[in-house]
Amino acid sequence: MEFVVLYDIRPGADASRLPEVFPRHKAYYEAFRAAGGGVKALGTFENPVVNGSMGLFTSREDAERFVASDPFVTEGLASPRILAWDPVRFD
User: Fold this and answer.
1) Which of 6, 4, 16, 5 is nearest to 75 (CA)?
2) Environment class of 64 (CB within 10 Å of its CB; exposed 0-12, middle 13-18, buried 19+)
3) Residue 77, Cβ density class (10 Å: 0-12 exposed, 13-18 middle, ≥19 buried)
4) Which residues pair with 44 in a beta bridge?
5) How many Cα neighbours within 13 Å face the side chain of 28?
6) Neighbours of 3 (CB within 10 A)
7) Which one of 26, 36, 46, 63 is separated from 6 by 20 to 30 angstroms, measured CA to CA?
8) Which three-class secondary structure state does DSSP give residue 24?
9) How far is CA 25 from CA 3, 21, 42, in A?
10) DSSP assignment of 29-81
11) pTM of the predicted model, to two decimals?
């Protein structure tokens, strides 16, 4: 089982702040991964202001720990949703 975090822009959030907060978000995910956090992939969908972004984690605990301190969440820009995912892989 893996865990997907879906981020949507929080209703009423000032999306123009995303580029300002992104460097803190990037530093956070790099440090999270370097410290052994189980993040497998992160990224935006086409037109992230409308479609949001997604992260893939190895455990619910890592997903919860990640969103708890992510600057996009703590600064009120993103609303996260964690979903368990049971993929069938073909590679």
Assistant:
1) 16
2) middle
3) buried
4) 53
5) 16
6) 21
7) 36
8) helix
9) 19, 6, 11
10) HHHHHHTT--EEEEEEPSSHHHH-EEEEES-HHHHHHHHHH-HHHHTTSEEEE
11) 0.92
Structure tokens that stand for 56 in this block: 């893939």
User: Amino acid identity of 30?
Assistant: E
Look-up: residue for tokens 């981020």? Answer: 7
How do residues 10-41 score in pLDDT, each as one tens digit?
A: 999 999 999 999 999 999 999 999 999 999 99
Sequence-ordered list of residues with C-beta below 8 angstroms from that of 79, at least 6 positions apart, any chain: 7, 8, 9, 10, 11, 73
